[in-house]
Amino acid sequence: MNTYVRPALSLALLMTLVTGALYPLAVTGIAQVAFPEQANGSLVRDARGEVRGSALIAQDFQGDGWFHSRPSAGAYATVASSASNLSPSNPALAERVGSEAAKLYRAEHGPVPQALLTTSGSGLDPHLPPEAVAYQVARVAAARKVPVERLQALVEEATLHPLIGPPVVNVLALNQALERLGQ
């Protein structure tokens, strides 16, 4: 029996050491050297150096003077990160989307973009399509007493064009630019 137990325990200990300690330490070290910003959470800081959020996680912006992110099924909490799991045929989803659409609807702008009504897969997507941000420009401009053209230029500057996929706007970065505009 000893001929089986000793090698099994030795192998379990060795694999625990390699996969549970050495490999994670090596990957963490490489990430810290090669990609320190991303390895530390892609933190976004304000002019005073205070952390305002992460470029990878949506935030809940309240009030008409800010661009709003997508809705979040988990109240923008990373612990509860998930979609709502409501199927398209679920009456609760239709009711929530209808209620949200009624709140956001402006006749002069047409239908509310879907990205402002539905959650992302994680519930924490920090990006919106430019059309969803453009839908909010008039509201933000009126609340801040800023010319619409100036905000449209700000949105255009904040629009990212990834190598693959459609253009997107990081709402936190856009709101930070908006905050700097007011100073």
Structural features, described:
By secondary structure, this protein is mainly alpha-helical. It folds into two domains: 2-36; 57-181, no CATH class. 47% of the residues lie in helices and 8% in strands. It contains seven helices and five strands, in the order ααββαβαααββα. It has helices at 2-34, 36-39, 91-104, 130-134, 137-144, 148-158, 171-181; strands at 43-45, 51-54, 127-128, 159-160, 168-170. A three-stranded antiparallel beta sheet has the order 3-5-4. α6 (148-158) crosses α7. The model has no long low-confidence stretch (mean pLDDT 86).
The radius of gyration computed from the alpha-carbon positions, rounded to a whole number of angstroms, is: 23 Å
Mean pLDDT: 86
The computed structural class is: mainly alpha
Largest β sheet strand count, sense and barrel closure: 3 strands, antiparallel
The unreliable regions are: none
Number of helices: 7
Count structural domains.
2
Order of strands in the sheet with most strands = 3-5-4
Global geometry: elongated
Helix content: 40-55%
The proportion of strand residues reads 5-15%
Order of helices and strands: HHEEHEHHHEEH
Number of strands: 5
End-to-end distance: 76 Å
Family: Belongs to the KdpC family.
Keywords: ATP-binding, Cell membrane, Ion transport, Membrane, Nucleotide-binding, Potassium, Potassium transport, Transmembrane, Transmembrane helix, Transport
Pfam family, one: KdpC
Subcellular location: Cell membrane
